[in-house]
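Journal club prep, shared notes

We agreed each person brings one worked example of a sequence with its structure written out as tokens. Mine is Methylglyoxal synthase. I'm keeping it raw so we can talk through how to read the token line rather than staring at a rendered picture. Sequence first:
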Amino acid sequence: MKIAFIAHDRKKDEMVNFVTAYEKVFEGHELYSTGTTGKRIMENTDLKIHRFMSGPLGGDQQIGALVAENEMDLIIFLRDPLMAQPHEPDINALLRLCDVQGIPLGTNIATAEILVKALDRGDFAWRELVHKYKPGTEI
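Then the structure, token by token:
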């Protein structure tokens, strides 16, 4: 599974704590993140994460490009709904793309926990079918 982590500044500590708590679940998956969030996670865990640019510099859009190609399987995006974000259009575009492609997206810690428990149980095996029958793929 390809999993992305994104967290606004006031949610980064919460993301690090969350990923640390579920580190064993995330092992063995392809992990992606925006810049600072990924750096903070790697400083506090043994996980290896492909880091994109920070969100305001285009990291959200880089992850969105994978979503648009249906190449991302799960996103945990801890958003700060009480703080205006200068790159709000990029955030909205990413959320819209997740809806278009049917990518599971957790935008708060409660939903993220439900998703990671489902991941641990193997409930996302259906994503393998999405990749197998993706247009342009040999069957």
